[in-house]
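quick one, 850 residues, struct below
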Amino acid sequence: MWRLIIRNTLARRGRLALTLLAVLLGVTFVTGSLVLTDTSQRLLDEQFRTATAGVDLTIREAVAFDSAMGVEVEREPLPVEIVDRIRAVPGVAAATPVVRGQGLLEADGKAIVPSGPSLLASWEPAPVGPFTLRSGRAPVTDGEVVVDAATARQHRIDLGAEVTVRAERTARLRVVGLAGFAQADGLPNSTVALVARPAAQRLLSLGTDVSEVAVVAADGADVERVRGAVSAALGSRYEVSSSRDIAASSAAAAKNQVSYLQVMLLALAAAALLVGAFLIANTFSIVVTQRTRELAVLRAAGATGAQVMRSVLGEALFVGVLASVAGTGLGIAVASGLRRLAGAFGMTLPGGGLDVTVRTLVVSLVIGVGVTVLSALGPARRAARVAPVEAMRRTAAEGVAGRSGWGRTVAGAVLTALGLAGLAIVLAGPGSVVVLGEAAVCAVVGLALLGPAVTPGMARLLGRPLALTGVPGRLARESAARAPRRTSATALALAFGLALISFTTVLGASIRESAARSYTEAVSADYVVESARNEMLGGLPEHAYHHVSELPQVAVASRIRYGHWKDGRTTEALTAVDPVTLPRVTSLKMVAGRLDALADDTAGGGIVLAANVAKERDLTIGDSIAMTFSRTGTRRLQVVGLLRDRDAQALSTSYIVSLDTYQRNYKEHVDASVFVKVADGVSDAEARKAIDGALADSPTAQVRDQAAAVAGRTLMIDQVLGLVTVLLMLTVLIALMGITNTLALSIIERTREIGLLRAVGMTGAQLRWMIRGEAVLVAALAIVAGVALGVAFAAGTVAALGRTSEATLTLPTGQLLLVVAVAALAGLVAGLLPARRAARLDVLAAIATS
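---
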């Protein structure tokens, strides 16, 4: 039987080629995603392990939590006096004070702004310091600096050159050395400036304080005992951590973005495999039907139904193994391309050698083989159930054209109705995203079951324009209508891909438009100053606000900051504002209470909540909310006001505190935005010139008007949705291969019909148009179902999101029309090869085909 399976598979390799390619692409996507994320996580682990490799313990200020939303919290500096106390602890061989912070590099008068951090640190020799000299020497005096070799090479910084370092203070320094990090020439997507410890303290305005103390235990000492002894000597104000724990914690914070990317990539890979499953099932269904007589001969010769079923599944297994092995190999190569693609859309990942694990290989092979075999299970069972005599009397066309049974139709109708009912509930108001997800599953499964029953009518309706083109168009329409199973399965594969693209397009446009509208309605400032790097918590130096606010061309300037806090195990964000100046640059509407009540610090500061959050938490004016801050622990803030939801959205969070409250609970001292109102009688050009001049010493600060500020806020949305849309095109490509494959297989079963058409006078051009017309009609069915499904569930998602934030449905008509046009054109292209093959058939040989 296995010899028969291999022989049949190889004999029909042309029919199964596109099926193999569909599986291959899906497995490639899965493998590439796993390899990319595994590699990124390994590189981050290695990076942070290397940074602490020579150190046993690290002493820092104690905080309630280390990081939130992928951002490590900033800690208070340590008094240098504790170094002697640490050195006096038994078991401590060395205690080295370390200084580190942010310092922007400038070379040849131009700021070097990486996508990652600009690290400024004190030079520490091994084993404390993770950096090693590649050339030159270590910095000794205050006027010397060592930069990472990668930055030096990229920006042509040579030994002896002068660079500027901008931190809390600015200094012009001479490059005396180039350093590397482990085997690399620097840190990924970062710049590094290493100076003598006193210089670092001066640049970061730390006085004699230090950022942390690195401890090396004595030879033979138990590190955990030393840790306990140091902790007892210093007290609870300081945190004594093993370097291994710090490395793991820092790596975990940095991996957040990688984890989100992994979930997104694997979800898109699942979508591609689902579309491929449609193609596989349709292909095997057609092939099994075309081989009905052959299978009947096998049954008549003594083969059992189980053997016939195993033969079909064996072919699927052969295809699945071959495609999975090839897809796994290709996926490893594609991982680097995915990394570059993610970088092009603003998701910077560490570079380095690829990490291929046994788990990745096993998962990729199991998924590829499993999807192929499961997709072929239905056709295999149908092949096993056909009686030998009945099979000998059936024609191939009958098997493919047969309508679905009433049970399948009823089940499909019920599930589709449930899906639409769930969608209606969400649109009406009481539903949630969970209900919407269940409705989407019901709708997709229902349409897959109901497809063969409704396809003939839909094909004839949508095919009316084809009928007007003449006989070839009418034949194309009837050909699609008389094979409902084949047509519906092919159309649904493409429809699913188009539904995802339409959903992404509409949802992205709605979120983007809602964010833009809420921002422009709430913020009345003429200009907004923000960091060009779009850091999560902001990156404007504190002096930028002071310089701008003191300009005579500026009537008022108001700054905001962001911070993270813990609500139990959940991490939330808050916005800090100046309640006195903010109303002059915004048009906020309070639902209850007053914004200026935030300025009353008699109770340790108050908080203004978004109205929907207050409703969810059952809070009102006068109630208090417990908030855990990394620096000060748990504090209770009194609710002094409720803000309209769309205005809270414009300020980016649902929790608003005063800048004074922020400063008491946070160490961070960078601004996220500065809202600027121009003084009366000052022209925009004059004001812009003055603001740009005031920010000359802040290279990362950007002055944005309303349009640019809105674009900055929606940039991340655009980047994520852009990446998703590009990757979703893979599902559309697989679906288009399904159209090509289905039409190619249908030509085999219609060989005699095509020969007769040519014999009665149909020209080759007319035949090609008939096949291409059928491809376009299948694409049209997919467009109607896919776009309608995508838009409907995008509307439901927007409605569900509207329960907790301001979101209104926006239909990007131009983009949707572009999707429709591209899908129709792609359908036409998908029919080119089958049409060409049909036109090349020998007429007499085709007529003689049984």
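The first strand starts at residue 57 and ends at 61.
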